[in-house]
User: Fold HTH-type transcriptional activator Btr from Aquimixticola soesokkakensis.
Amino acid sequence: MAQKLPPNSPPEAPTTAHKGAGHSAARKPWYEAVQIPPGQSCLNYERRLAEFRYNWHYHPEFELTLTLNSIGTRYVGDTVAPYGDGDLVLLGPNLPHAWKSRHAIDPQMPHRAIVCWFTQDWITQLAATSPELADIATLCGTATGGLAFSATTSAAFRARLERIWTLPQAQQILELQSVLLGLAQGDAPTPLDRPLRAPPARAADVAQARLQRVLDHLDAHYTDHIRLADLCALANVTPSQLQRIFKRATRVTISDYVTRLRVARAFQLLGRSDWPMTRIAQDCGFSDGAHFSRKFKAATGRSPSRYRKDFRDSGPPRPDGYFPMLPQEKHPPR
Assistant:
């Protein structure tokens, strides 16, 4: 029997490369050198291209991107998802990402992306010098794995983002602050990387340290068989009390919470290893391959094998190494 890895450890490097592997260990993202000009706090621009080719890359800057007139696949961290017109995401520093277009909504017009780059130093200074803008720092602090905003939120900021790069530089930075503050104070975005993991609920939030013991136990042992009686003993409550407290704090049942943790682990293993489905099922805590496939499809809308295929069918790999940003007028590759 294959040895199970600790829940949060990376999978072993595969001994052979998966044919056509896209995000496997054999394919590393290339480094994009973003060059924010001296005297500027951000760089905003528009890309217009005949297509968005798959370019798996990362950079130390935050990136706010609004995609227009394009339908395709978005790759962020360990996740793959379709995107469409108005797709609005915020990506944290050093988070690998790529877009791969399938077709333009209006084939007579180019695929477009409004891109805003800014640094962690700028965000830190904003929060330190302007307490009224602290919500921006909070938003960016949750963007480590990427955030996707709703269609309603995107529509509300679309016109402003479409013109932001055309404004004088001083107005660009003020407009970017305003947009980020609006995003921070609006509807909660959806996390992209490990999207199915339930948000951490700290004891201070639920005012019950006993529940925190349950959450810590689940986070450490979700790949094992979970018994309700053991959880009740940790919290010193009855089963009905625990279920009620847990759902009020996390908005999901204990069973759903555990499933989300297991599916999130499966996301990593499907994208980063060549393990067979049976081994992934075992490592994530599912009883068997069929149970794993059923739960994964219910959570994501795709079978595990289909998810792995979508994750890896992303075109030829880009060579590693330094890749300076092209001049703005040349529209850097997406």
User: Anything to note?
Assistant: The two ends are 43 Å apart (CA to CA). Residues 254-272 form the longest helix (19 residues).
